[in-house]
Amino acid sequence: MVSANVCNKCGNKIITGVRKYQGRYYCAHCYDQIMEEAQRFEDEKQKLVLFIKDLFVIQECPEIVLYAIEKALREGKKLSGIKGTLLYYYNIQGNAPDNISYIGTVIQREYANAAKYFEETKRIKAANEAIDINVPPVVVRIHPGDQKRKKMKYRMEDL
After folding, report:
1. For residue 2, what pLDDT is reported?
2. Per-residue pLDDT averaged across 29-53, rounded?
3. What secondary structure, in 3-state letters, does the chain show?
């Protein structure tokens, strides 16, 4: 069992400034890092909710949408993956965002397809960047001695 004077993240002894977060004890440095991560997560979640509001042209997000997001997060999906799934399904595939109650089903069914699509586009982009399209021009020189001029002979009958 970890006592209150040992940080749960880095394992160092805490001399002063024991901070408690979600039932665990942290030093001041690790606590600040954890709080920054939590703030970034909440900001990303708010951006996802704003994206959904803009996509479906609504003022407030229904509880069913928030529940679908929480369920997807519990299953190990990431917020950026959920946003990418919605972007893929509605914007790239061209499906109409008419019924917001299907958002949970869309996330469940299309998450893997969206991941494959974005991995493929990332792979193609990397391959395109690896190719050097700026090929230096090749100069071909022809020496006058290489070609012999033949004098054309015409016969009067052929003219």
Report:
1. 46
2. 92
3. CCCCCECCCCCCECCCCCEEECCEEECHHHHHHHHHHHHHHHHHHHHHHHHHHHHHCCCCCCHHHHHHHHHHHHCCCCHHHHHHHHHHHHHHCCCCCCCHHHHHHHHHHHHHHHHHHHHHHHHHHHHHHHCCCCCCCCCCCCCHHHCCCCCCCCCCCCC
